[in-house]
Fold:
Amino acid sequence: MIKITREDFSVDEVIKSLKRSEVGGIVTFVGIVRGESQGQPVERLEIEAYEEMALRDLEEIRRRALEKFRIEEAAIIHRIGDLKVSDNIVLITVGAAHREEAFEACKFILEEVKGLAPIWKKEHYCESKGITPKSRWVTSSS
Amino acid sequence: MKVTIKFFAHLKEEVGCDEEELELGRGASVSDLLEILRRTHHVLRGDEKLLVAVNGVRSKLDQRLAEGDVVALLPPVSGG
Structure:
């Protein structure tokens, strides 16, 4: 399952969709909005994507993970739009016969998504704190 | 020939729109397009490393453009 969506996702449903007789372990990573960034209080996160291209990239990352690791299935869901603190951002779920491959593949997919997919995050800071600027596009190095 | 340029993230905000159309001479490359855009958009004159995608595929600077191409300027990504 590959998806870019404005809606929240159900971790349970995605895990359920990966269950099959060959799978002995499912590793899940959920990235959520942190309420702090570089010492500044974050109020919300705005996420933008070049959707057609990002979807193709996520498909390709999943395909490479299935080729590189001994895993049975992988799902990647990335949200876009306005998100509040603690909202889900990204879900990566990998099912494999054994745990080592599932953990490794999950980390591989996450790093590839972060470094490749045309998706951008903008942090909006709590206004009451008198912070300037009020928002900032996140760069991969920050 | 006419091409469409797509802007994202901070580029979109600083240019003031998410896309624009541009008329280019036949045989123009991605590099030629960037040179023209830099004349009109100050934000593109900086040293930020931009990737360029033509019709959704990452492209090199010397790629020739064709009528109707969609050229996306991609700032450094920060998903995940």
Summary: The radius of gyration of chain A is 16 Å. Chain A touches chain B through 29 residues (CB under 8 Å).
